[in-house]
Amino acid sequence: MSSAPGYGSNTPRTKLTQNQLNAILHRHLAFRKSQAGGVRANLKMRDLSHLDLSNIDLSDADLSGAKLFSARLTGANLVNANLYAADLRLANLEKADLRRADLRGACLRGAILSEATLVEVDLRDGTLLHYTPSGELTEHAFEDSVLTSELTAAVIRGADLSRAKVANAFVMQTDLTDAVLRGTKFMRANLTGSNLTGCDLTDADLTEANLSGAKLSGAVLTGCAIGRANFTNTNLIGAILDAAQLRSPNLSAAVRAKTLENPDDDLREILVLHMAWIDSGGKDGKRADLSSLDLSGRKLGPVNLSAAILQCIALRGASLAGASLAIADLSLSDLRKADFTKADLRGVNFERATLTGANLTDAQLGPVHIQTTSGHVWRANLQRARMGMAILKNADLRKVNLAGATLAGADLRGANLSEADLTGTDLTGATLDGTVLDGATLADAIGIEELNLT
Could you name the domain of life of the organism this protein comes from (predicted)? Predict the structure, then answer.
């Protein structure tokens, strides 16, 4: 066994081969099963760089100070594991389970943690470690020994960090797209330039955090503490915020949704040009682009905005009853309590949009058949849409993509969901009396057991 210097330590680490690691893992598995000869894995200060630990069970194992540089840990079970001051740079932890793991002072720079479970992990500051003459691992006593946890340039897309402790950590240029960050503690964390598009930050604590240049389009910040946080050049277009948050002076330097100076006249002109664009097949007029505008509360009625670009638009409480929005792009938009009754939403893009409490009674969200030689079918995309308590009575949702969407408490009575993709969809408390689910994909759907459809 060779030795390698250690991150956060003044003592070289012992390098393990794959065979030596496998022997330790075998004894740890026996320990987990309470079998004879079982021993809890002790991998503290070991060098496991580049080794394959995919799908292994290291729950409760001691990996404090271990070097896992570029190690493969996809699907690994690291529940309650001690990863204090571990070196996890460029490690692949995709879909790993790290619930309640101790990651204080750990370095995850460039690591991949997409779809990992990091509920209640501890990523606060750690302390430099060293060995005593007796061989015990202990902390340095001097003041400059603090190790700040680092997630810089990590990929953490779709991961669950609910109630995690990330105070003071470096989370710069990190991809947290669609991550669940409910109740997560980010006090004084540096999130400069990070991508938090579509994140759920409900009840999180961002007090004194640095979010300058970060992207929060479509993110939910309701109940989130933002006192003294830095939002300079932070993109909040399409983000869901409380009324009190919107009044915060902290947001004065953020990039927010725009308003029209003369909304009635400006909208009329935009709609006239858009109709000319539709009627001429794109030869005349101009395609409507209302992206990043705030039109909340407006009564737009049965307007024709088919194929319009409305990304990150704010239409909270707006009325679009009977409107034509076929193949329109409303991704990452704030559509809370909007009225889409009897609207033509065939092939619409509602990806990551927030439609909490929206009314889509009798709305048409079925597929559009594109007139081409290939006969392409354009399905409505509601992937990861938030539709809690939405009203979808008698709505046409045939072949719609609702993968990862939230329909908790939604009213789907009489809705047609035949051949819809409901993979991972949250249907907790949804009302489905008379709902058609013929041919629907229900894999990993949440709350499905309540519907007696298993």
Answer: Bacteria
Quote the DSSP letter at residue 364: B
CATH number at residue 266: 2.160.20.80
β-sheet bridge partners, residue 205: 185, 225
- Mean pLDDT of all residues in the chain? 92
Nearest to 412 by CA among 398, 426, 428, 433: 433
Per the domain annotation, does 337 fall within a domain? yes
The answer to whether residues 336 and 354 touch, using CB atoms and an 8 Å cutoff, is yes
Q: How far apart are CA 358 and CA 132, in angstroms?
A: 63
Q: What is the pTM of this model?
A: 0.89
The answer to whether the CB of 58 falls within 8 A of the CB of 78 is yes
Residue closest to 341 by CA, chosen among 316, 364, 359, 317:
359
Burial 283-298 (b: 16+ CB within 10 A, else e): eeeeebebbbbbbbeb
- Tokens 């594109």 belong to residue: 370
The answer to whether residues 49 and 21 touch, using CB atoms and an 8 Å cutoff, is: no
249 in any annotated domain: no
Tens digits of residue pLDDT in 56-91? 999 999 999 999 999 999 999 999 999 999 999 999
- Residue 1: the pLDDT is 43
Q: How far apart are CA 97 and CA 228, in angstroms?
A: 33
Widest CA span of the chain, in angstroms?
84
359 vs 9, residue with greater confidence:
359
Residue 114's contacts (CB-CB under 8 Å, 6 or more residues apart) are: 94, 95, 155, 156, 157, 158, 159
In-domain check, residue 246? no
Q: What is the pLDDT of residue 10?
A: 47
Domain count, the chain: 1
Domain housing 399? 259-454
* Range with the poorest average pLDDT among 5-9, 22-26, 414-418, 423-427: 5-9
Radius of gyration of the chain, Cα coordinates, nearest whole angstrom: 25
Residue 312's CB: how many other CB atoms inside 10 A? 25
- CB burial of 244-261 (b: ≥16 within 10 Å; e: otherwise) equals ebeebebbeebbbbeeee
In 93-219, where do the E strands start and end?
126-127, 129-131, 137-139, 146-147
Write out the H or E segment, with its range, that includes residue 279. Answer: helix 263-279
Domain assignment present for residue 64? The answer is no
